[in-house]
Write a structure and sequence with these properties.
This protein is mainly α. 77% of the residues lie in helices and 0% in strands. It contains 13 helices and no strands. Helix 7 runs parallel beside helix 9, helix 10 packs antiparallel against helix 11 and helix 11 packs across helix 12. The protein is globular. The protein starts with a helix and ends with a helix.
């Protein structure tokens, strides 16, 4: 009776250790606990990767802003995808600093905030990829390099992406959780209801299938179109290769996203439908795959788009040159102060002597 009353009462005042123990983690503590060396290694490597994620995606966003050749709907949406990866980098850093034994000391609100950052970044990435897929479909069906979307419509799409993403990240904290029903808690996410975990994983997998179907349709159309263009001159064909290159870039990004996130979504689905399945042992590897995806995306942008790579190189050169100037200025200032203190100040110029 006491156990039944405990499962039916709400536990907003409990720390996360209570919910981890409830999710059958206490009996598997020897298997699921973090080894100190392993935890430090994961945190150090993870934080290094996160620094790269933050820097590289900031470079992509800056490149789109500063280079007028990127002032088109596709690149605006691509920079928004980079912004979602930038948020993912912040979320991963926060997760790295609040994992292991520290996670058991989190409050309910602290855990919702930690998971909310991850959910918002994933939803934003997925929504951006879907919007980019639709933008590419519209432009490729007319065989144009860029669609005719106005800046106002692109801004509206970006706003909708983030509004939906924030809503998805806030849903568990708004009530779809297991705080008042402990017997429905997930093992991977101890505050999340299994029904929400099933909804989350299935909806994302369905969006994967929709995007794959869109790009298969685009690929078939482009292939058919290019076969019919072989009778034209090479210059005409080269001009038509530009939209195809953009499609290849997005397809590689989508492929990397699907490969890195599908295993995690499948494990979440198993966690939701199977109460006896041991899924917690996969969580570390799934986290590393998620981090790897955010590391890969800016590399893909730079490798597949030469103009993007040139712009990023120019930005890095400007940063390096600015750093050298600051160092030189500080060195000259120190030398000047040093000379004044020892009485060996620089000689006055001829104009001053007169």
């Amino acid at each position: 009776m006491d156990q039944q009353n405990q499962n039916q009462s709400c536990h907003y005042d409990k720390l996360m250790d209570f919910f981890y123990n409830n999710s059958d983690r206490k009996q598997n503590d020897t298997r699921d606990s973090w080894d100190t060396t392993q935890l430090i290694l994961v945190q150090v490597v993870g934080c290094l990767f996160c620094c790269f994620i933050l820097f590289s995606n900031a470079m992509v966003i800056t490149a789109v802003i500063t280079n007028r050749r990127f002032h088109f709907p596709f690149y605006y949406l691509l920079s928004n995808l980079a912004a979602s990866d930038f948020l993912a980098g912040i979320a991963y850093v926060y997760l790295m600093l609040n994992t292991g034994d520290v996670s058991r000391k989190l409050t309910v609100s602290g855990y919702f905030f930690r998971q909310g950052l991850l959910d918002i970044s994933l939803s934003a990435s997925l929504s951006n990829l879907l919007v980019i897929a639709l933008e590419r479909y519209v432009s490729i069906m007319s065989f144009k390099v860029h669609s005719n979307l106005t800046k106002r419509r692109v801004t509206l799409l970006i706003f909708l992406v983030w509004a939906i993403s924030i809503l998805m990240g806030a849903v568990p904290s708004m009530g779809w959780n297991c705080i008042c029903s402990l017997d429905t808690c997930s093992k991977l996410a101890p505050l999340f209801s299994r029904s929400y975990v099933i909804f989350w994983s299935v909806s994302n997998l369905v969006m994967f299938l929709i995007m794959v179907a869109i790009y298969i349709r685009i690929y078939m159309y482009v292939k058919k179109k290019t076969v019919g263009m072989k009778q034209h001159t090479n210059n005409s064909l080269n001009r038509k290769k530009t939209p195809i290159k953009l499609i290849k870039t997005v397809m590689v990004v989508l492929g990397a996203f699907v490969i890195c996130w599908t295993p995690g979504l499948l494990v979440l689905l198993v966690d939701g439908v199977c109460q006896s399945c041991k899924v917690t042992k996969f969580k570390r590897w799934l986290l590393l795959m998620a981090v790897a995806n955010s590391v890969m995306n800016p590399c893909i942008y730079s490798y597949k788009d030469q103009e993007m790579w040139r712009t990023i190189k120019n930005l890095m050169q400007c940063i390096c040159n600015g750093t050298r100037r600051q160092r030189s200025l500080r060195a000259n200032t120190r030398h000047l102060h040093s000379g004044q203190e020892t009485g060996n100040s620089p000689l006055p110029s001829e104009g001053n002597e007169e």
